[in-house]
Amino acid sequence: MSSEFHIVVCGSIVPDPLQTLAPVDGPTGPTLQNEMMLPAVLDPWAGHALYEAANLAQANPGSQVWLVSLGPKAKLQQVMMAVSQKAPFQLVVADGSSSGFTDSFETAKTLADTIEGIADLDKSKMLLFGGWQSASRGSGAVMQMVGEMLGVTEQFQGVDKITVGDDGSIAVMERVEGGAYQKSVVDGAPAAFGWATGELPEPPNNPQIGMQNMQKNMPALMQAKPADLSGTSLTFEGVEVPQQRRETRVEKDASVDDMAKEIVEWLKG
Predict the structure, then answer these.
(1) Residue 251 CA to chain centroid, in angstroms?
(2) Measured in Å, how far apart are the chain's first and last C-alpha atoms?
(3) Residue among 65, 53, 213, 43 nearest 132 (CA)
(4) What integer pLDDT is reported at residue 121 of this predicted model?
(5) 235 within domain boundaries
(6) What's 78's domain CATH number?
(7) Is residue 266 part of a domain?
(8) pTM for this predicted structure
(9) pLDDT 10s digits, 244-265
(10) Could you tell me how many helices (H) and strands (E) the chain has, helices first?
(11) What confidence tens digit (pLDDT) does each residue in 20-79 have?
């Protein structure tokens, strides 16, 4: 027996990881040097969540997938031209900053408000997907807060696999320490899942899916409402790239005990 889900995937864009990123102080706070000129990609963790959502929807006829993204719509349009060929989804856009310097709470609030505005969403069938971490924010807190704001208390983080049972229950495999997994079972929707890498490879490009997606996603981009992220009290005193540090000393005749003792003293310091 298949279940019908309304799957909401939260995911934004990040600078291409192959680029050199240099933080600078801008007029409104920290930013990346030439940020709007940097090529962007879909956040890798959000990508895993999207592909898992599309696979789950395909296995459960009647299910729908929405990709809810907070980011500058001009950059989102460029990225969506490629992402839209990977899997079918309906794009919902909040036009605002995707910077890693944005307050996590304000980000979560904007995403939750945007999700609440999806007209066809049935929250009793909702599965909230997103990245366990983020290549821009990396706080590991946004998805938890979005879930709480939407009243979704069944939450799982570091998910690599979910399996839907015949009775609609969902078995969840979550990463825990030591390379092990914790297995949980939730009765069904609503529930929130912060995805790790999942088990699926990146889907191949399908131009037909891309054309179908962009027919409905282009209007969503054009009609995107500005997101208000001004409510934060978060401030930065300064930003800089971490400096590499290497101290090397060559000792030819040091004993193992002397080396161990020096390492211990160095760690204590």
Answers:
(1) 47
(2) 61
(3) 43
(4) 92
(5) no
(6) 3.40.50.620
(7) no
(8) 0.81
(9) 777 777 888 888 898 899 889 8
(10) 6, 13
(11) 777 777 676 666 777 777 778 888 889 999 999 999 999 999 999 999 998 888 888 888
Average pLDDT value for the chain: 85
Instruction: Please state whether beta strands 155-164 and 181-186 pair in parallel, antiparallel, or not at all (unpaired).
Output: unpaired
Are 169 and 207 in contact, with CB atoms under 8 Å apart? Answer: no
Q: Which one is predicted more confidently, 131 or 230?
A: 131
Is 1 a member of any domain? Answer: no
Quote the CA–CA distance of 115 and 92 in Å, as a whole number: 8
Count of C-beta atoms within a 10 Å radius of residue 144: 18
Please state the domain count of the chain: 1
| DSSP 3-state of 77 | helix
Helix axes 207-222, 73-83, angle to 10 degrees: 160
Omega before residue 30 within 30° of 0, cis: no
Q: What are phi and psi of 186, to 5 degrees?
A: -110, 145
Of 3, 5, 77, 6, give the one whose Cα is nearest residue 42: 77
Strands 40-42 and 13-15: antiparallel
Q: What are the tens digits of pLDDT across the range 114-155?
A: 999 998 899 999 999 998 887 776 667 889 999 999 999 999
- 48-to-74, 131, 152, 226, 259 alpha-carbon distances in Å: 23, 7, 21, 27, 45
The boundaries of the domain holding residue 214 are: 6-226
CB 130 within 8 A of CB 49: yes
Q: Got the DSSP string for 237-269?
A: S---PPPP-------SS--HHHHHHHHHHHHH-
Q: What is the DSSP string of 162-173?
A: EEE-TTS-EEEE
The answer to the question of residue 104 being in a domain is yes
